[in-house]
Amino acid sequence: MKKGGILNRHLSGALAELGHGDGVLVCDAGMPIPDGPRVVDLAFRAGVPSFAEVVEGLLAELVVEGATAAAEVREANPAAAELLAGHFAELTFVSHEELKRLSAGARLVVRTGEARPYANVLLRCGVFF
């Protein structure tokens, strides 16, 4: 058994398979899950695990070269917007409808238990060298 990092075997394995440019959608419990991408559902109950916990855990494991969020997050969920702005200097904003469309191209979807609206981000993987 791993002694640290991400212990969920499905998530750990999915992260190991990602390559440069692959998309990872981290979403709240209400985001529609597109057909196609691998899905790791971490939702246990409303709010558990939180969007912030999952994003911060993933950033400890992944190299991320870009991130896209729904523009609506800035007004509807300021805490999530602040979290994202703190991690991604060049965060791109699109409409929520466009984010849903883009999420269909993600390689992995990680569903959190977050119950606040617009707590979603599409990460673009980078490389460590």
Describe the fold and architecture:
- This protein has 129 residues and is α/β, with parallel strands linked by helices.
- It is built from five helices and six strands; from the N terminus they run αββαβααβαββ.
- The chain has helices spanning 9-16, 51-59, 73-76, 78-87, 96-103; strands spanning 23-27, 38-41, 64-70, 92-94, 108-111, 121-125.
- Strands 2-5-1-6-3-4 form a six-stranded mixed beta sheet.
Q: Briefly, what is this?
A:
With 129 residues, the protein is of the alpha/beta class.
List the helices and strands and how they pair.
Blueprint: H1 9-16, E1 23-27, E2 38-41, H2 51-59, E3 64-70, H3 73-76, H4 78-87, E4 92-94, H5 96-103, E5 108-111, E6 121-125
Mean pLDDT rating: 95
Determine the structural class based on helices, strands and strand pairing: alpha/beta
Helix content: 25-40%
Distance between the termini: 28 Å
Gross geometry: globular
- Which band does the percent of strand residues land in? 15-25%
Total beta-strand segments: 6
